[in-house]
């Protein structure tokens, strides 16, 4: 994508004080071409917000989809994270997991909805994440099915704790999940161990489908890296926004 139109992006940096986390949290807000405050927009909330913008090139992808593919304009909210405590916030066994969930539902979403013209129906919100951010997005939607139903999971880290939580639900028919995993992720080492992400994603898919969730699932050549996920982002966005 070398078209200069794709690189003319409006990205606003915000910061809010979180009483749940006891600290400030930074956000990156992408506003689409032709942005107009009297209109209303669908919204994508991304975990690992800084990486989605810097390595996933999500704003450039969004411009291309809107300008050339006829996708209705949408807003992106990237929620930044301190990588040194990322697992504590994103993993269900993390000591900041519940607080971070509350920060999103009770602080970040109201902040965005008070300041930007985003639509407030759950069908108009999309949660997106890579690795632990993908599994966290699913956990958030399972717990708050009144707020979320659409999830983009790029090589989701569906550790045993996450699989057990999915299994504990009897009805997930309100959820629609876009899942992709790389075939070269069969022995990926994280800060909590070495995992076969292909097998974990297969198990998560099966559990979700058994509970009525609508799942779009793909296994492709790729590693547990942004080089892979960046290529998959346009299809993921089109799946919900097309």
From TrEMBL:
Gene3D superfamilies, alphabetized: alpha/beta hydrolase
Family matches, as Pfam families: Esterase
Transmembrane regions listed in the UniProt entry: none
Lineage: superkingdom: Bacteria
The protein's name in its UniProt record: Enterochelin esterase
Organism encoding this protein: Paenibacillus apis
């Amino acid at each position: 994508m070398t078209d200069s139109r794709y690189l003319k992006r409006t990205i606003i940096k915000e910061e809010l004080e979180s009483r749940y986390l006891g600290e400030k949290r930074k956000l990156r807000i992408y506003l689409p071409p032709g942005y107009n405050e009297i209109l209303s927009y669908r919204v994508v909330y991304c975990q690992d917000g800084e990486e989605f913008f810097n390595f996933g090139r999500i704003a450039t992808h969004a411009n291309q989809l809107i300008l050339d593919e006829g996708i209705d304009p949408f807003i992106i909210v990237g929620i930044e994270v301190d990588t040194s405590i990322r697992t504590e916030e994103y993993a269900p066994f993390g000591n900041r997991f519940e607080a971070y969930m509350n920060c999103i539902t009770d602080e970040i979403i109201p902040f965005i909805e008070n300041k930007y013209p985003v639509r407030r129906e759950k069908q108009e919100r999309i949660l997106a994440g890579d690795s632990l951010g993908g599994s966290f997005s699913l956990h958030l939607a399972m717990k708050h099915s009144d707020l979320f139903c659409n999830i983009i999971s790029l090589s989701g880290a569906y550790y045993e704790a996450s699989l057990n939580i999915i299994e504990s639900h009897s009805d997930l028919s309100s959820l629609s999940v876009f899942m992709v995993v790389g075939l070269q992720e069969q022995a990926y080492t994280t800060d909590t161990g070495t995992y076969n992400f292909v097998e974990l994603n297969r198990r998560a898919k099966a559990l979700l489908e058994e509970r009525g969730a609508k799942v779009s699932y793909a296994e492709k050549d790729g590693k547990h890296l942004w080089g892979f996920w960046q290529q998959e982002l346009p299809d993921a966005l089109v799946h919900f926004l097309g």
